[in-house]
Amino acid sequence: MKTYRLNRLFNAASGRCLDVAVDHGFAGEAEFLVGIEGMAGAVARLAEARPDAIQLTVGQAHHLQTIPGRDKPALVLRADTANVYGRREPDRSFAVLIEDPVGQALRLDAACVVVNMFDVPGGDDLRGACIENVSRLKAACDHAGMPLMVEPLVMKPATGGGYTVDGDLGRITALARQAVELGADIIKADPTDDLSQYHRVVEACGVPVLVRGGGRVSDEEILARTQAVIEQGASGIVYGRNIIQHPSPAGITRALMAVVHEGWTPEKAGSLLEGSS
Description:
This protein is an alpha/beta fold.
């Protein structure tokens, strides 16, 4: 049964996926709301650009699912929230599942659910909580035929406080592999510092790997990075701020889709942004 939903998530021709993450409000951090202050308009504009999927929370999924017609992007439902994204280290880290995540995903007609799995320095309790969350979701997802996407997020202390992502190949590979061992059907992982080695993450997982976008970078960098990870065997991308905070979210979505699905070069795909707004 999971195959039926996965067919809605991955492009039939390329076998790849572009999932636009618009679940940033779940973090409870004001800076993450830039570009998505008005969710109804933000989701509508993205849906018109026709990415393969849009990643939303249980409280915002209706903006996508009430759009009429059969051609809208698939829904990826965020199943948990955490407090490790702020500019200071929290006194107590947590990762909490929403109530009845798979039941809510079914009622919202989601194609997939996604849950975090953190590796934070000194955060053994947080990692243990994430393992429990993944394990609980795995059983419920299997029972319902719902694909499970796990987001292994390797972090390190940031200058000025809090955490930032760590592109260390070994840490990313190990955490992603642990997520697969726990039953992930799809992995959503950070890019490595050396993109030429990303095939090692893909090979270690053995399930589709979608690459996270992280913080906002230039169009040239994000298009080149996308080409690189696709060439390394990634099955697609999950980008948030590099799309929703772009001057033309629809334009950059179309450009990224051309790289992911049609094999366009970054330069050719960048031409789709000329004159866009």
